[in-house]
Amino acid sequence: MTRISKHLSLCVAALALTVGGVISAPTASAASAADCVIRLDSRLWCNNASPANIRASARLQAEITGQLLLNYSWFDCWTSGDLHGGGNTTWYHTKGDWTRPGYDGWGYVPAQALYTSSDFDADPTAYGLRHC
Questions:
Q1: pLDDT, mean of residues 63-81
Q2: What is the average per-residue pLDDT within 106-125?
Q3: Nearest residue to 72 (alpha-carbon basis) of 96, 48, 107
Q4: What pLDDT, in 10s, does the model give residues 85-101?
Q5: Mean pLDDT computed over every residue of the chain
């Protein structure tokens, strides 16, 4: 990645963080749940919306600790939290591609940011992803 494109990515991330980084619901044409798999490292690897804010807890108003800038990311566990725009309360834990200054970049994204199926979001443990 060139220095200019890296700088541009950071500017885009900062802008999205400043304006709240609204996540739009993924569309079926963009990716499919088949692109989401639990690998041997026990992580869920999945296409996701980007940028996507990572929050300190599974709450819509929690502090933003970082962002997913790439559209294919890993998630090491899941938990229940606030109801979000995806129509469920499932949130996935990860570390951001960009870290907000003063934070470690670890946190939760709502299931609506991932291209998982509603069946997967209803019980990720049944598919092999551990509960946080």
A1: 97
A2: 96
A3: 48
A4: 999 999 999 999 999 99
A5: 82
Query: How remote is the C-alpha of 117 from its chain's centroid?
Result: 15
pLDDT of the residue at 10 = 43
CA-to-CA distance for 46 and 37, rounded, in angstroms?
A: 7
Positive or negative, the CA dihedral 18, 20, 22, 23 is: positive
- The pLDDT of residue 115 is 95
What is the pTM for the complete model shown?
0.76
Exposure string over 105-128, b if 16+ CB within 10 A, otherwise e: bebbbbbbbbbbeeebbeebeebe
Which residues have CB under 8 Å from 61's CB, separation 6+? none
Residue 2: which region, alpha, beta or left (left: phi > 0; alpha: psi -120 to 50)? beta
DSSP string, 100-121: -TTS-SEEEEEGGGB---HHHH
> Distance between CA atoms of 130 and 132, rounded to whole angstroms?
6
Query: Who contacts 93 (Cβ-Cβ below 8 Å, separation ≥6)?
Result: 75, 76, 77, 78, 79, 106, 107, 108, 132
